[in-house]
Amino acid sequence: MAKRFNIRMAGVGGQGVVTGSHILSTAVINAGGESTIVPFYGSEKRMAPVESYVRVSDEAIYEIGEITFPHIIIIFHPQVITHGKSYTMPFYFGLKEDGIALINNDGPMKLHRDQTAELAERRAKLYYFPATKISLDVAGMDLATNMALMGCIGAITGLTNMLGLEQAVKDRFLGKGFVVSGGTAALDSVVERKFKKKQELIDKNVAVMRAGWNYAVDHGWASPDVKRVEEPAAAATA
Amino acid sequence: MSETEVKTNPQGDPITSVAAPSSAAKKDPHAEAKRQKIVTPEYMFHEAPRTKEFITGSEAAKEAIRRSNVDLAIAYPITPQSETMQLVGVLYGEGYVKEYYRGEEEVGVMAAIAGGSRAGVRCYTATAGPGTLRGLEGIASWPGHRLPVVAMFTCRVVNAPLAIQPDNIEVSYLLNCGMIVFHAENQQDMFDFTMAGFTISEMNDVTLPVGVCCDGFFVTHARGYVRMQDRGIKLPPREAWRGAVPVLDAENPPARLSRDAPVQKSNFMAYNIHAVWQQEVWAAVERSRKYIDRYMGGLLTAENVDDAEVIIVASGSAAAQSREAVRLCKEKGMKVGLIKVRSLRPFPTKELRELCAKAKLIVVPEFNYVGWLAKEVATAIYGFSKAKIIGGPRVYGGQSMPVELIVDEVESGVSGKKSTNVAMSQIMGGAVNADEVAHFMRSI
What we know:
The complex is a heterodimer of chains A (about 240) and B (about 450). By secondary structure, chain A is α/β, with parallel strands linked by helices. Chain A has a single domain, classed as Pyruvate-ferredoxin Oxidoreductase, domain 3 (3-Layer(aba) Sandwich), CATH 3.40.920. Chain A is built from eight helices and six strands. A six-stranded mixed beta sheet of chain A has the order 2-3-1-4-5-6. In chain A, α4 crosses α5. Chain A is globular, with a radius of gyration of 17 Å. Chain B has two domains: about 210 residues, Thiamin diphosphate (ThDP)-binding fold, Pyr/PP domains (Rossmann fold, 3-Layer(aba) Sandwich), CATH 3.40.50; about 140 residues, Rossmann fold. In chain B, about 35% of the residues lie in helices and about 15% in strands. Chain B contains 15 helices and 17 strands. In chain B, α3 packs parallel to α4. The chains are: A alpha/beta (about 240), B alpha/beta (about 450). Chains A and B meet through loops of A and α11 of B.
C-alpha cells in the first residue's frame, strides 16, 4: 500500500506557510518520493489567513486542487484556532479518522468541549509542538517557526530525511527554481539582514529543523523507521 | 534605431516587451528555429526519443506549438489562458511561429483564424470561459467551412456568479459544433493532444477544427511531468493544396462561398444543401476515429476494467481525481476500473459499449453542474449495459473535487444506500428503483 499523506497547513501571513510547504515538498522529492503543492491565500499581509496543501507519497500523485479531507493538519499559529484565522473552520474540518493535528503551541490548548468531543470521535491525534519556542531557542528568532514544523512533520511522515530537508533549505535560499511572491521576497531580505551571510542563515534554519525532527522522535510521533539526528546531516558546503 | 530612440505603440506607450537591441554580436534570434528538422508524424508520435520535464500546462502547450510548425497564432487574453498565448508569443520572437498578433476580442480572433485557415496556413489560438462563448459564433462556423485549426480551451466558470476558477461547463457548448473535441487530463495530454490535433485536423478526409480542452489552473498553472521529443524536430507544414477544400482565392470564390448564398432562400435546395453540409461535417468527425487511434492511442484509455463490476468514467481533471479514488477503493478491498475519455467528439461509443457491457455500476464524476459527460455515457451505452449509472459527484465554480466524494458514490452505489451527494434525477440505468424516482418527481 502506498504511503500517502494529504497535509493541510494553516497559518497566518508572514509565518512562511507557503515557504514551509515548498520546502517539505522539495525535501520529499529530494528523498526520492513524490509531492505536489497548492498554496491558497487572499491579500498578502501579515497575520492574514494562509493555507497551503501538500501531498506527499512514495508513489505517483494524480490528484489536483485543494485538500478537503486531510490525513494531517498543521496549525502554524494558535490564532488559527482561537481567532478563526483560517479558510477552514473549525480548524480540524475534514480531518480523516486517526488523523494528526500538529499544533504550534507551548502546551495543550483549551478547546471548546464540542470540539474536543468531535476530535475524540474521529480519534484525532493532537500533537502540541512548541515550534516558535524552538525557533527562538535555537536560532534566536521566531521566523524559523516553519522550519521547526517542517522538521517535525518530516519525521512524522517518514517520507524524507534531514539530508533532503537541508538540501531543500539550500535550494530555497541559494535560488534554484523557487518563485516567490513580492511579500515573501521582501521578508527574505529582512531575514537575510539578520544574519551576516547566507550560510549562517541556512545553518540556523537547518539546526531548527533538526530540533523539530528530534522533538518528534523523542515524543514518539515519528514514523517507526525514523531515528534521531545528532550531527549536521551533511558537511556545510555552500 | 539609435540607442536613445524609444519604440512606442500607436498610443505612444513605450514598448517594453521587445528585447533591447544589443550592440554586441548580432545573434540571429531565429537561428535555432531555422535549424529545426521536419519529421513525419509517425516518427514524431511513435519513434522520436523523449525526455521528461516538470512544467506547467501552459508551458506544455508552448512546447507542443514549438514542434508543430505553426504559421499563424492569434492571442487575446483571458484568464486562465493568457499565459499560454503569451508563451506562444515568445515562440514568435524565436521564429518558431511565423505570424502572431493580439486580436481585438474573441469575435475578431475566431474570424481571423477562419481567414488564416481558409488561406491555407496552420493556425492556433486559445481562449477560455466567457472568451469561448464570445467566440462561439465563429467557432461554430469553422466545421461547416471545413477549416483545419487547433484551438485550446482552458475551461473556467462562465455562468453567474462569474469566477475565473476551473469549471468545464463550456465543453458542453463545443460538443455540438461539429468540431473534434479532446479533453486533456494533465500537462502531458496538453502536449500530446495539441500536436496530434494539428495532424488529425488536416487529414484530407477530416479537414475539421480540433478543440483541445483542459480544466484551467489545475492543468495550465500547475506543474506535471511531460515527456517531450527533441525541440530540434517539427511536424511537416500544412499542405493546403492537398486539402479537401480549395484554398480561398478571394478573386474567385469557390462554390462553397458562392456570392448568391443558398442559405438565404427558404426552398428545398437550401434545406438540401444545409443537410449535405451537416452530413459531411459529422461524417468527417466519424472518419477522424482512425487517426485518433493512430496518433493518440485511442479515444479512451481503460485501466482494470476487465471483469470489474464498478467502473468510473471520467475526463479531464475528474480523471485525475478518479485515479486516486481507484487507489482508495483498492485499499478498501473494492475492485474498481477506470475509463478516461480523451476524445469527446468523436465519442467512444463503441468502446464504451464493449467495456461497460458487464458492469453493474458506473460512476461519472464531473467538474460542472449539468453533467454533460454522464448524459453522453448514458446515451452511448443505452441498451448495451444494465449498469446503474450515477451521474456524479459534481463540483462547480472552481471547487476541487475531493477524491473521497467519488469513493462515497462507489460505496453507496454498491451497497444500494442512498447517496447524499447526487440527486435522484442524476441516477440512470437499470438498477433504479421506479418508486423512488416517482417519489422524487412528485416532490420537486
